[in-house]
Design a protein that fits this description.
Strand content: 15-25%
Number of helices: 3
Shape: globular
Helix content: 10-25%
Number of domains: 1
CATH superfamily: Dinitrogenase iron-molybdenum cofactor biosynthesis domain
Length: 132
């Protein structure tokens, strides 16, 4: 089965990226062989719709499960519509979270875990400059 893990770098030993739509890499792992393909996330710099674009990339590659730190409402809807299960894992490397999933230690989420525009920088999606 193809599993996609959001990652900060392009290896099995890369830490999981807590963002789905704005992750650095989409690491697609064959759960049986642990062979993988690291796909740079072309949506990382999008001004809008990053979650939907990343979801389309994942769905087009035949992924059945996404493991990420968080998923927003638009990405959640796009992944669910494509028949992709969404699993959240707060910490670990790509290899560690895939192994945990295979052992049944991680479970699907039934709803978005963050609001829209999460991960767009400082302020968790609020544009502009924080005034103290």
């Amino acid at each position: 089965m193809k599993i996609c893990v959001t990652a900060t770098a392009n290896s099995l030993d890369a830490p999981i990226d807590p963002r789905f739509g704005r992750c650095a890499y989409l690491v697609i792992v064959d759960s049986e062989t642990m062979q993988f393909e690291a796909v740079p996330n072309m949506a990382v710099g999008a001004t809008g719709g990053a979650g939907i674009q990343a979801a389309q990339t994942v769905a087009n590659r035949g992924v059945k499960v996404v493991i990420t730190g968080n998923v927003g409402p638009n990405a959640f809807g796009a992944l669910t519509a494509a028949g992709v299960d969404i699993v959240t894992a707060p910490l670990g490397t790509v290899r560690e979270v895939v192994e945990k999933f295979k052992r049944g230690e991680l479970h699907s989420t039934g709803a978005p875990t963050v609001g829209g525009h999460f991960g767009m920088g400082q302020g968790h999606g609020r544009r502009g400059i924080w005034k103290l």
